[in-house]
Structures are given as C-alpha cells and as structure tokens.
Amino acid sequence: MEEVVKGKKLLNKDNVASKTTITMKQIIEAQDNLRGAIMIGYPAYYGLPEYEPVRMILEKSFPFEDMANEVFDVSHF
After folding, report:
1. How far is CA 60 from CA 9, 26, 53, 54, 55, in A?
2. How far is residue 62's CA from residue 58's CA, in Å, rounded to a whole number?
3. Is residue 52 part of a domain?
4. Host domain of residue 34
5. How far is Cα 6 from Cα 47, in angstroms, rounded to an integer?
6. Domain total of the chain
C-alpha cells in the first residue's frame, strides 16, 4: 500500500496548482515500484487473470485509447 500511496501523491492534481515538476524518470520509477509490489504478491502475475486491469497496464496492453476520459477521473482518490 505504501507504493500505491506514493504513486497517488506523485500523480495528484494538486501538483499542478503548486507547480510541482514531475519527470518521466519519477513516473517510470513509481511504475517500476508498483510492478515490483505486484510481483511480490503475484510472482510472474500468477493468479491474476489476463483481463485484470493492473496486469494489462503493467504489461502495456491496456487499451487506454479506446476508453472515455471520464473513466480515468481520479478526483475521488
């Protein structure tokens, strides 16, 4: 959960208001940390179905372009 909280803080919309700069290196590092956390719980994604969004995102096969923008509203986090 610690890595999830760190990722949410990194991508928080308040960073725009405070003009906090976020680099691709930081985003990739956060994604790698989340991938590692998932791999601890599900080695080689064993037990996660192929349609699981987390698995699809980490394997870079999630169809973001086919989805409406409303789906990605994370303001409730």
Report:
1. 22, 18, 10, 10, 8
2. 8
3. yes
4. 1-11+27-61
5. 25
6. 1
To which residue do tokens 């700069």 refer? 21
Q: pLDDT, tens digit, for every residue of 30-54?
A: 989 988 988 888 888 888 888 888 8
Instruction: Provide the residue type at 37 as one letter.
Output: A
Q: What does DSSP assign to residue 44? A: G
Is residue 55 within 8 A of residue 48, CB to CB? The reply is yes
Taking only the tens place, the pLDDT of each residue in 22-35 is 889 998 899 899 88
> CA 14: distance to chain centroid?
17
The pLDDT value given to residue 65: 74
**Is residue 56 in some structural domain?**
yes
More confident residue, 76 or 36: 36
- Return the number of other C-beta atoms located less than 10 Å from residue 57's C-beta: 15
- Residue 40 inside a domain? The answer is yes
In a domain, 48, yes or no: yes
